[in-house]
Design goal:
mainly alpha, 5 helices
Length: 146
């Protein structure tokens, strides 16, 4: 890819990311409006979860924008050396949560409870994958793999 094509693509990506971040902000605002009116604990809990996820998404998008406009990502082996063992323990904790969620899903007979537990299970799986990916970074960085 030519340098000018790469720059054009980066500009388009930045534009898209900024629009996406605005969409996340709109989602957060919408959730806040729902939370002001919602009385049911199920609605409040699920809406809060959506709001929290959108806040997390906006923070991640901002990190990406900053890496493209301010300073590129920097991660050195020493950044990971202090947390490597903790990540290994964290992965095991996430696996326990996954196992418990699966067990709870099998045990419940209530359809709403089952759906709520499945939402948690998906998050726990995602958390485990994220921790595994962070752990794998130490090997990539040490080996000089981009």
């Amino acid at each position: 890819m030519a340098a000018s094509d790469a720059r054009t693509r980066d500009k388009e990506l930045l534009s898209l990311l900024r629009k996406w971040k605005s969409t996340e902000a709109a989602t957060i605002k919408s959730c806040e409006a729902i939370l002001k009116k919602a009385k049911n604990p199920i609605m409040v809990t699920l809406t809060t979860a959506i709001k929290n996820d959108s806040e997390k998404h906006a923070a991640i998008i901002q990190l990406i924008i900053d890496s493209m406009t301010k300073a590129a990502y920097q991660l050195a082996p020493e950044d990971l050396s202090g947390v490597a063992g903790l990540l290994t323990k964290h992965i095991a904790i996430e696996q326990k949560a996954i196992d418990m969620a699966n067990q709870a899903i099998e045990m419940t007979r209530d359809s709403i409870t089952k759906q709520l537990l499945k939402l948690i299970l998906e998050d726990e799986k995602k958390h485990k994958t994220m921790a595994e990916n962070m752990s794998a970074l130490k090997y990539r960085i040490t080996a000089g793999i981009p």
